[in-house]
Amino acid sequence: MPDPSSGSRASLQRVCFTLRVKPERLAEYRERHAAVWPDMLRALAATGWTNYSLFLSEDGLLVGYLETADFDAARDAMARTEVNARWQAEMAPFFEGTGGANADDSFHVLTEVFNLETQLAAADAAAEGAGK
C-alpha cells in the first residue's frame, strides 16, 4: 500500500474526478457522507487517499478531489479492502451512468491545466536563474 506520509506535498499527484448522483438520491447521498463508516475512513487514509473531498451540486454533479503519491496504486489498494467492497455495493445505486459498477471504476478523471503553487515555483525558479 502507498505510504501517505512519504514524499513531500509537492510530489503528490492531485486528482480531480466527476460522477453524477441521481437527483432523487441527493439528500440520502449527503446523509451517508455526513457520517462515513470509521473503517472506511481509516482504509482511505491507509491506502494513500489524502486531502480527499467531495463536492455535490444541486443538479447531482459530484466532484471529487484528492492528493496521493500514486493514484493507480491508491485505487488498487482500496479496491482490495473488504470495507470498500461493502461501501461500493451500498453506493452503486446512487449514481447515474455507471451501469451499476463501482463508482471508483467509473470516475471521469479531469486533466489538471493550472496549479498556483506549481506555476509560482516555476516563476520563482526562472527569476532566480535570470538573476545569476
Question: Explain this structure to me?
Answer:
39% of the residues lie in helices and 20% in strands. It contains 5 helices and 4 strands. The N and C termini lie far apart (43 Å). Residues 1-7 have low confidence and may be disordered. This is L-rhamnose mutarotase. One of its GO terms (molecular function) is L-rhamnose mutarotase activity. Pfam families: rhaM (PF05336).
Which labels suit this protein?
single chain; 132 residues; alpha+beta; Alpha-Beta Plaits; 4-stranded antiparallel beta sheet; disordered N terminus
Q: Measured on Cα atoms, how large is the radius of gyration?
A: 17 Å
Shape: elongated
The percentage of residues in β strands lies in 15-25%
State the order of secondary-structure elements, H for helix, E for strand.
Answer: EHHEEHHEH
How many DSSP-defined strands? 4
- Helical content, roughly? 25-40%
Helix and strand content put the structural class at: alpha+beta
Distance between the termini: 43 Å
Low-confidence stretches: 1-7
Mean pLDDT: 91
Question: Which CATH C-level class is it?
Answer: Alpha Beta
Helix tally equals 5
Largest sheet: 4 strands, antiparallel
User: Which strand order do you get reading across the main beta sheet?
Assistant: 2-3-1-4
